[in-house]
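How it folds:
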Amino acid sequence: MLPEPPPAAAALFGPALPAVVRYAGLLAGPGVERGLIGPAEAARIWERHLLNCAVVAELVPARGVLADLGSGAGLPGIVLALLRPECDVLLVESTARRAAFLTECVAELGLPRVQVVRGRAEDLTREVSADIVTARAVAPLGKLAGWAVGLCRPGGTVLAIKGAGARDEVAQAGPELSQLGVTDLEVLQVGSDKVDPPATVVRFRAPVRRQPAAGRSPGSQVRTGPRPPGSRRDRRRGGQRPPAPGPVVPMRGPGDAVAGPAGPA
């Protein structure tokens, strides 16, 4: 049974609370039935999940492009979309069943500035260029940072929602973070005056210049357009070459999914 929203919910969500209640029902109903969240999570959906994500909104600007990496059941991406209705939000998810659930949630909640982008983060590098990238319970920080930076515009911000071991993760991920060239890294306790416990967020900025792809020297060029007619590779293909993929550009209609590389169902 879905519990009533606690008093803190009204203060945090304001006029968005009715939509959040509908979303809570989707999580506790179809979300549990399809295995997107565990059965025990329904009873603590507010304190453990919705409020924990809501306080992160204070780190998100009112406008811009936000990509929620490994969005899963939509936490925190859908929550932040409800609280920042003028942001363009991309819910990045590789698996078919999760992407389908997200698409249904977006349509049910009427979120016209939200897209579901189905694909793996490493395959979407240079196709998604977000001002903010969020992630919650996706991967250890060293691996997560590489994926998130790939979805950020140069100089964009990554917000990784972590648990009590956040500082240990930062220390362990030191070599990867240094190699990526991230800056302004800090561990924040967010919402301590609103929820207990507060959300722990690792925040850092993507490098102003993207790092070269693995196996390429810093001065090498990555070709993104078709080769000139008559080039050696062009001749091998009979003069035909498929166009390079274009960027993911917001926005479409509510709940429309952007096809990407297929993940496991």
